Amino acid sequence: QGLTRATKFKVDTGTSLNDGVNSPLQTSNGWTNHVSDTLHTYFFLYDNDGHYSKAKITAMGGVVPAWVEITWYYNKSADDPSF
């Protein structure tokens, strides 16, 4: 049996993960199922387990790019969009 993990993404205009900005609720408009692999701002994630994360691509390389590194904060409290 395969595992399925649905994740929603919402791009923000901020660049510092420590700016204190909370995630918009996953029920608001503008959430999608992907983000660009060359994004320079942070983005929010909402997983089907009910948890929000705040993430940013911090390094990339190769062609297109071929790889990315991300830094993220995971909120351990379900359905809590605060960061």
3D structure, described in words:
- By secondary structure, this protein is mainly β.
- It contains no helices and four strands.
- It has a four-stranded antiparallel sheet, with no helix packed on it.
- Strand 2 and strand 3 form a beta hairpin.
- 11% of the residues are buried.
Structural class by sheet pairing and helices: mainly beta
pLDDT average, as an integer? Answer: 93
The count of DSSP E runs of length 2 or more, i.e. the number of strands, is 4
Order of helices and strands: EEEE
Radius of gyration: 13 Å
Q: Distance between termini? A: 35 Å
Low-confidence stretches: none
Beta-strand residue fraction = 25-35%
Largest sheet, if any? 4 strands, antiparallel
What kind of oligomer do you see? single chain
What is the strand arrangement across the widest sheet? 1-2-3-4
Give the CA-based shape. Answer: globular
Q: How many distinct helices?
A: 0
Describe the structure concisely.
The chain has 83 residues and is mainly beta.
Q: Which SSEs are present, and which pair or pack?
A:
Elements: E1 7-11, E2 43-47, E3 52-61, E4 67-74
Antiparallel strand pairs: 1-2, 2-3, 3-4
